[in-house]
Amino acid sequence: MSVRKSLIGVLGVAILAAIAFSLYVPAARATGTEKLAFDPPAAYLENERNTIAIVEAYGDGVVYVSVASAPKVVTPELPPGFEQFAPFFGPYLEPPKKGTGSGFVIDKEGYILTNYHVVEGADEITVKFHNSPDTYKAKVVGSVPPLDLALLKVDAPKSILRPIPLGDSDSIRVGQKAIAIGNPFGLEFSVTEGIVSAIRNNPGAESSLIPQLIQTDAAINPGNSGGPLLNSRGEVIGINAAIINPNGIPQFAGIGFAIPINLAKQYLPDMKAGKKITEEDVIKNNPRLGVTVLPAQYFPDKVRERYKIPDHGLVIQEVEKGSPAEKAGLKGAQNFIYLQTPDGNVIELGVDGDVIVEADGKPIYNINDLRSILFNLKPGQAVELKIVRHGKERTVKVVPQVLH
């Protein structure tokens, strides 16, 4: 009886399975032409849909920049002390150069932002818009070479000028999405995607006057320079400018850098007005303490030991009259020594000025360390300095100001 019940149970399961199979197979094989119930657009991930929408909306605002220079007669500059060798280093003909890079449209007037190093020394600049066969001549209307920024102007139909909105690089968060669009290795209109890997003090990848750079793992290669780095709203948060080449090979290694767009926005009015901003102008336009400094490592060990100078920091040489530093009580040097450099020059070193060793808790080794902190302060915000005076530490608060 139990065996019979088991057999009936097994048969019942088999019958049910056969019924289910018979119901399923005809539907799948009705004509042999049906496809799976699959809607490709709906299959895109949310992140994919976002990237596609941004590229379709703003990709045409990225331009292909081509530059060319004519042959030039160049007279080499000799270092001090080598003037007597001038007859052996006469003028020579520098061959013509060609190069490519990227840029992006910022308004309907035909202004295009790019890197200064993309167009530096160019005698002819042309731009080409995505999905357009025509090329247009462009000219540099303004630039900030110390910050690697240049503004181009092109006379092109407004119908093909697709401005990309400028975002707020101060609101960037590490880990957020980053999209790079440009022309790497001359490959027109390439899109890569990654994240913002870090917001870090300038690691030396670009000019020392750029206080901070956006680090990204979105692939950036030669030719991407001057192109935009976009957020998930399609806003420009940075201008792709540099990569780290651990093996000296100019190709992407997972670490690229972009100049924060807020830095460019700060100088846009001057560039549109046709100005070429110098390093001195940049320094004057940023909050300063009002001091002249030298790195502690410039001083020989015996000098540092004698005058109780720390092994790192900035030794204040002079304090400007009426400056924030003077108001905060910082002291410049009163005693000086003179050293002869290997090239025969003599330099003056103030040995007993205050030494700035920290700013807002961060160690200071060179002027770039200090600038990166000062340039990112909000107006009226104080910086806390740890200084060493005659071998003793003290803390001073100073409110940097723009000094003209």
Task: Report what the structure shows.
The protein has 404 residues and is an alpha+beta fold. The chain folds into 3 domains: 55-73 and 92-160, Trypsin-like serine proteases (Thrombin, subunit H); 169-278, Thrombin, subunit H (Beta Barrel), CATH 2.40.10; 286-402, Pdz3 Domain, CATH 2.30.42.10. The protein contains 9 helices and 24 strands. It has helices at residues 2-28, 40-43, 46-58, 116-119, 261-272, 279-284, 301-306, 324-327, 367-374, and strands at residues 62-69, 72-74, 92-94, 97-105, 111-114, 124-129, 135-144, 149-154, 177-182, 190-201, 212-216, 228-230, 236-243, 256-260, 287-288, 291-295, 314-319, 336-340, 346-350, 355-359, 362-363, 383-389, 392-398, 401-402. Strands 1-4-5-8-7-6 form a 6-stranded antiparallel beta barrel. A hairpin with a 5-residue loop joins strand 4 and strand 5 (111-114). The chain is globular, with a radius of gyration of 31 Å. Mean pLDDT is 86; it is low at 1-32.
Strand content: 25-35%
Structural class: alpha+beta
Record field, number of beta strands: 24
CATH architecture of the largest domain: Roll
Overall outline: globular
Task: Order the strands across the largest sheet as they lie in space.
Answer: 1-4-5-8-7-6
